[in-house]
Design goal:
The protein is built from 16 helices and 12 strands. It has helices spanning 16-19, 24-39, 41-64, 77-87, 104-117, 133-141, 166-176, 195-198, 224-227, 254-260, 268-271, 273-282, 285-307, 339-344, 349-358, 385-401, and strands spanning 12-13, 71-74, 95-99, 120-124, 148-154, 179-183, 202-206, 218-222, 323-327, 362-363, 366-369, 372-378. The longest helix has 24 residues, at 41-64. With 403 residues, it is of the alpha/beta class.
Length: 403
């Protein structure tokens, strides 16, 4: 499948999880929409955009198990969560319960909000290795108390690449009257998603990661009961009592209108998202995901043999799928010369990443989380067993030399 993508053929690209990679045919569709805009900008933005966005939202909603009037396009999940954070009503002493596996940009967003209102952002530790989903839910729920107003949790974590059992957590939150907000940046196109079945109040997902849409396509889902208090991050012509929403068959309600119109911007990434959905359908992506999971399982097994370290989760796809975090040992840099180098990179992770890329042409993130070290490997349809072998052999050489 490598010929179907625009990736540099000289690089072993094992970092799909960070920014994705867009198939050529989807990127062509993206550029086609940009050219459509430039042919007649007033016609495109003034007369066609609402119906085009409604159609794209409808196809995306069907893909993620929601209705079109529950979905808003955003350029990325960070924008979406910032809108939610600026809309929630919290007071001094209230708590937001989360885990210690969350994405750093999201943590910063909630910390800023809590600093302003005197609320508390509570990182409930999730120790590794995880064992069963039942144990996970009970352990996490033990962090809930009478001050908990919001639960914010990743569906798939960024640093540890774990799939969390968020459905049961959302169910309990609903029963307890706690708002549930799920960061699903890594989920669409990666693992099955049905938002109605999941039962959360708010969900955000990236389309430009595993769904492989162009960069700048993501979404926010809000169940209807949660829509009224969400305030647009950017107030523009779609907001206000004087706005007349288009006909219901376009799927555009006051909620959609208020958040969708944010001034003049390029809509091409949103409009090309259905092409990404179609690409996966046309190429039997369920089979691709299974093959990629098998590569992730085998990679973890092989690297564990090299390091002698244990896995952070069972092998089952209920805990990870195409992206896996694998423990690596503390690497003591040799021959750095400058003692300040040791202070800046005492674990050797920076040098490890540099050697993997500069010497072996392997693009893969190395992560420090809670003073533990991981390499996070992502497999997509364009990856091969040969690339897995390349990574394993490179790690074997680097680890044996301790850099």
């Amino acid at each position: 499948m490598k010929d179907l993508f625009l990736l540099d053929p000289t690089i072993t690209f094992l970092n799909h999880g960070s920014f994705g990679a867009t198939p050529k045919i989807v990127f062509d569709e993206y550029q086609r929409w940009q050219r459509e805009l430039e042919r007649q900008p007033v016609e495109f933005l003034g007369r066609r955009a609402a119906s085009l966005l409604a159609e794209a939202r409808s196809k995306l909603a069907a893909c993620v198990g929601a209705d079109a009037d529950e979905i808003i396009f955003f350029p990325n999940p960070t924008h979406a969560i910032n809108m939610v954070a600026k809309s929630v009503s919290l007071k001094t002493g209230d708590e937001i319960l989360t885990t210690d596996h969350e994405y750093g940009a999201m943590d910063r967003t909630w910390h800023l909000l809590c600093k302003k209102v005197g609320a508390k952002y509570v990182h409930h530790p999730i120790p590794l290795p995880v064992t069963t989903q039942e144990n996970f839910v009970e352990h996490f729920w033990s962090g809930v108390n009478e001050r908990t107003k919001i639960i914010f949790i990743s569906h798939i974590t960024s640093p540890t690449a774990l799939i969390f059992p968020v459905k049961e957590i959302c169910r309990r939150a609903r029963e307890a009257g706690i708002l549930s907000i799920v960061d699903g940046a890594h989920v669409p196109g990666h693992v099955p998603l049905n938002l109605h079945d999941l039962g959360c109040d708010i969900y955000t997902g990236a389309c430009h990661k595993w769904l492989m849409a162009p960069k700048g396509s993501a979404f926010l889902y809000a169940r209807r009961e949660a829509q009224s208090w969400l305030e647009p991050l950017v107030v523009s012509w779609g907001w206000g009592d004087d706005v007349i929403a288009p006909s219901p068959d376009m799927g555009e309600t006051q909620f959609v209108s208020s958040h969708q119109w944010q001034g003049t911007r390029d809509l091409a990434a949103f409009l090309a998202t259905p092409a990404a959905i179609k690409f996966q359908h046309d190429h039997n992506w369920d089979d691709v995901r299974k093959r990629c999971h098998a590569l992730a399982v085998e990679t973890r097994r092989r690297v564990n043999q090299v390091t002698g370290l244990e896995s952070i989760s069972p092998e089952s796809s209920e805990w990870f799928n195409q992206m896996v975090a694998i423990r690596i040992p503390l690497l003591n840099p040799k021959g750095l010369g400058d003692p300040s180098g040791l202070r800046k990179d005492p674990s050797g992770l920076g040098l490890l990443k540099t050697r993997l890329y500069d010497e072996f042409k392997i693009e893969v993130p190395v992560v420090m989380w809670n003073n533990q070290h991981f390499i996070r490997v992502s497999y997509q349809g364009y990856n091969t067993e040969e690339e897995m072998e390349r990574l394993v052999e490179a790690l074997k050489e680097i680890i044996s030399s301790r850099l």
